[in-house]
Q: What sequence folds into this?
């Protein structure tokens, strides 16, 4: 049996190395800081429970992002089944007062486009890696990127220009 101190060290390392990326992804998918924090916490807990072995840091990061994405999807499904009052979290999540509105426009896109845009542009994953993470073909990822960029451009121009 693994010692609790070893597991705590693993959790701290995962949070230090990947916590920001996981939080950004979850925030974009869920639109709520509190929910994003919960999703990241659940992701780390699953990491500790399963104690998977990885081929390297890239494999570990991809696994964590996949688990976080699935956790967010589960939370979104639960929201649809049990609707609650919406909280205005985007203003709280904005980094500064001169925000250009791009985060708002991104948050208004359907989840399948938000996810690939964040993985590609923010997390800097290659198309092939995104395809593995979301379980789609590289051509499907390219189409989602293309459609997501178009939708983002339309929403941004409509709302903020």
A:
């Amino acid at each position: 049996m693994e010692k609790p101190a070893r597991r705590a060290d693993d959790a701290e390392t995962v949070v230090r190395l990947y916590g920001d990326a996981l939080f950004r992804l979850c925030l974009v998918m869920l639109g709520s800081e509190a929910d994003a924090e919960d999703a990241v916490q659940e992701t780390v807990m699953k990491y500790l429970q399963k104690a998977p072995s990885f081929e390297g840091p890239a494999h570990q990061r991809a696994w964590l992002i996949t688990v976080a994405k699935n956790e967010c999807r589960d939370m979104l499904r639960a929201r649809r089944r049990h609707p609650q009052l919406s909280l205005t979290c985007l203003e709280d999540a904005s980094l500064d007062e001169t925000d250009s509105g791009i985060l708002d426009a991104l948050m208004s896109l359907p989840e399948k486009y938000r996810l690939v845009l964040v993985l590609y542009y923010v997390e800097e994953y290659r198309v092939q890696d995104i395809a593995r993470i979301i379980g789609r073909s590289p051509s499907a990822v390219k189409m989602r990127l293309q459609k997501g960029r178009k939708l983002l451009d339309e929403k941004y121009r409509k709302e903020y220009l």
Observations:
- The two ends are 59 Å apart (CA to CA).
- DSSP finds eight helices and no strands in the chain.
- The chain has two domains: 1-93, 99-161.
- Residues 4-30 form the longest helix (27 residues).
